């Protein structure tokens, strides 16, 4: 299974990638998680890119391409993948296409999770992430949730889920990432999935098109 999940920030890519990854035992590759891990550990890369992630700008392509190349050379993509947050612009998509050509493999599908802007702002403002197992929760739906129900880890709000940064991330999505919908549609790979409703409902819709 070789899948790219597309969608605005807050569309549910991370949640859905996690579920599909467990169901089919295929690696979930989230460039956002990789970058946040680098920042948390104050690595050389983390220190270079934190300003972009914290302000909602895209991290320069060369860093991202390097991360994906490392995944390829370490064999982590050999048995399939679910890409979440990559590619993020046309340059990355074209480079990814070239990398896959070199490996002689093809994408199966690109799933675009479509959600209204109001819903996205609501979801991002209420989102909490488990600092330990990375599960994603909605603060509103889960009432007074303080600890992760799965592992007891602390639930944190992402720094870039503040109102101002959300606005910027949505603008960046419109300018940089939305054009990928046409790019993959022209390649005959795109499938649109309604991203409204509960996580379980969205998973059902995705499973139907896989
Ligand atoms: P995400 O977790 O996918 O919402 O990503 C969080 C942030 O990480 C983004 O706002 C960007 O700053 C950065 N980021 C993640 N993936 C990419 C990518 N493929 N290209 C550039 N920046 C990225």
Query: End-to-end span in angstroms?
Result: 9 Å
Shape descriptor: globular
Annotation field: number of helices: 9
Determine the fraction of residues in helical runs and give it as a percent range.
40-55%
- Enumerate the distinct ligands: adenosine monophosphate
Biggest sheet statistics: 5 strands, parallel
Which fold does the CATH topology refer to? Answer: Rossmann fold
Low-confidence stretches: none
The CATH superfamily turns out to be: P-loop containing nucleotide triphosphate hydrolases
How much of the sequence lies in strands comes to 15-25%
Using the CA coordinates, give the radius of gyration.
16 Å
| Strand and helix order | EHEHHHEHEHEEEHHEH
Q: Could you give the order of strands across the largest sheet?
A: 2-3-1-4-8
Overall average pLDDT: 94
Number of domains: 1
Secondary structure: number of strands: 8
Structural class from helices and strands?
alpha/beta
Secondary structure blueprint with pairings:
Elements lengths: L1 E5 L6 H12 L3 E3 H10 L3 H12 L5 H13 L7 E4 L5 H14 L5 E6 L2 H10 E4 L5 E3 L16 E2 L6 H15 L1 H8 L3 E5 L4 H11 L1
Parallel strand pairs: 1-3, 1-4, 2-3, 4-8
Antiparallel strand pairs: 5-6, 5-7
Structure explained in plain terms:
With 210 residues, the chain is of the alpha/beta class. Helix content is 50%, strand content 15%. The protein has helices spanning 13-24, 31-40, 44-55, 61-73, 90-103, 117-126, 163-177, 179-186, 199-209, and strands spanning 2-6, 28-30, 81-84, 109-114, 127-130, 136-138, 155-156, 190-194. The strands form 2 sheets. A 5-stranded parallel β-sheet has the order 2-3-1-4-8, with helices on both faces. Strands 6-5-7 form a 3-stranded antiparallel β-sheet. Helix 1 packs across helix 9. The radius of gyration is 16 Å and the shape is globular.
